[in-house]
Amino acid sequence: MSVPTLKSSEIYKSPQDRTRLQSLQDTFAARFSAPPTFTVRSPGRVNIIGEHLDYSNFSVFPMAVERDVVMAVRVIPPGPSVVNGGGVVIVANTDSTTFPESSITLPQSTQTLVDIDPTRNDWANYFRCGLIVAQKYLQGSYNSELPELDHPNNHQQPPKQLAGLEVLVDGNIPTGSGLSSSAAFVVCSTLVTLLANGYNNVSKNLMVRLSMKCEQLVGVNTGGMDQAASVYGEWDHALYVSFFPQLTAKATAFPEPPALANGLPDDENKMAFVIAHTLVTSNKHETAPINYNLRVVEVTLAALALAKALGLSAPNSIISATTSSSSSSSDIDGHPLLVDLVLPPTGNLAAGTLRDVFELYKTTRPSSVSDSDLLQELVTLVDTHLRDDYTFSDLATLLSTSSDTEIVNAQLTRLFFSTYPVRYSALQLRKRARHVYSEAARVFKFMNVLRFSTMQYLETVAELGRLMDASEVSLWEDFECSCPEAQALCKVVRKPRGPHGSEPLGYGARMTGAGWGGATVHLVLQKNVAAVVQAFKDEYYRVKYPGISEKEMNEAIIISRPAVGTAIVE
């Protein structure tokens, strides 16, 4: 399935958004004295349930939103006749005060990559990421790493020098809001580079896999949910995104209320999702060593520790390959592998995931036990076998296959703590694994309610809301990525109201996105949307941020239907 080419009316339902697109193209022509060659856009996303599961290979349930990143592009082909712009990518932004124009010099050699400094929090770095991963893909550098994809050099195409570009960017996804503005940006920049350099049949799967690599280049060890939601989005459908055994995205509609007595649809009681930005900026790049990247390390080590405690080992594990082969490919710095890696080389750290433990555990249990029940069993086993006070020395002892402490420590550092540096006082493996398994169970239950519920409509909505509420509790207590501001917004929706003081404005509320700030998502009925918005303004924004303007509050609250995904604009 390829990234589609769509008319602006198929992408944007509101006249204001279509006007914004035209304004971008007009501004481009004024800035660069020529019209754009093409325009692409990619939306942000909100995750309804399934937080911090993607890098453990468990399924998630996000939807694309109507807010997006748009890039108008003019291609400057490489060659000696080019005087102005050849060999250079100029990236400008309609908000030039916040995002100043940047010039990226392209390497002369087809084998040299664009340079990037991941320690700098520079917005243009995200465009550099797209240039790098697209260039590597076009050169065939991902052939062995992503063998399932069709690679250009499979068709014996020689590497080409990258074309110069003039790019004007416009985005209306609040940065640091937890709505994946960075994912939308790198999807666009990767797509732009592929299209500009002659690779036109771009599959959606390719876009997800390549754009996942982008954020890793700037030091964020991300999973694939954000990119998948942005690329695969469909109007009026959320996405059941699975990562095991392979990436799939299944469009899923929400239940509808029964028709009114006159046969017309009951629009007032339809489900709606209101997104509220805490206005606490969540910068994954800057806080990654103590937040996002640390969680990736913790859940990976939790998987290995739990597998060892349960006596589970995969036949295709790294350690099995090491003991059955004399090959030096498993050596680290000239020494045989001395860390007990009993899981397959999957996940962001290529050392196994909690999903691998689940699959291995599943083979030891009767086939009649449901996946949801298996996950609950694993939650109990996590509580029994893991702790929340592991030190580096504890893990070295636990995972070591040798008494050579110096080599074991060096290998443990190399495998888990160096590619994406982290800082910690203790590794909380029990809490992190408990969240992953309990959240994965909630996603299973959420999907079963959507697909198979025999309850009355409002009972179904209430059950979905309860699962969202439970997710927020886990994010606050076990994964520790929510924040007091997110909790405050959730309480606004849950607060009993109405003539009898027993009716909340909404059915479910939770933090969404990476966390540590960012946004919250709230399940409400359409008839209550206006009241929810007003309550947010009166009970959160004006209390937390005295003097905040009406415009600022309106920008912080997003009411979006599930939107279409990445597209080339016709």
UniProtKB/TrEMBL annotation:
Domain Galactokinase N-terminal intervals: 27-74
UniProt xrefs under InterPro entries: Galactokinase, Galactokinase_CS, GalKase_N, GHMP_kinase_C_dom, GHMP_kinase_C_sf, GHMP_kinase_N_dom, GHMP_knse_ATP-bd_CS, Ribosomal_Su5_D2-typ_SF
Stretches assigned to the GHMP kinase C-terminal domain: 461-541
The protein's Enzyme Commission number: 2.7.1.6
Pathway(s) served: Carbohydrate metabolism; galactose metabolism
Keywords: ATP-binding, Kinase, Nucleotide-binding, Transferase
Ubl conjugation recorded as keyword: no
GO biological process: galactose metabolic process
GO cellular component terms attached to this protein's record: cytosol
PANTHER family per the UniProt record, alphabetical: GALACTOKINASE-RELATED (PTHR10457:SF7), MEVALONATE KINASE/GALACTOKINASE (PTHR10457)
Record NCBIfam families: gal_kin
Name the record gives this protein: Galactokinase
Lineage: Eukaryota, Fungi, Dikarya, Ascomycota, Saccharomycotina
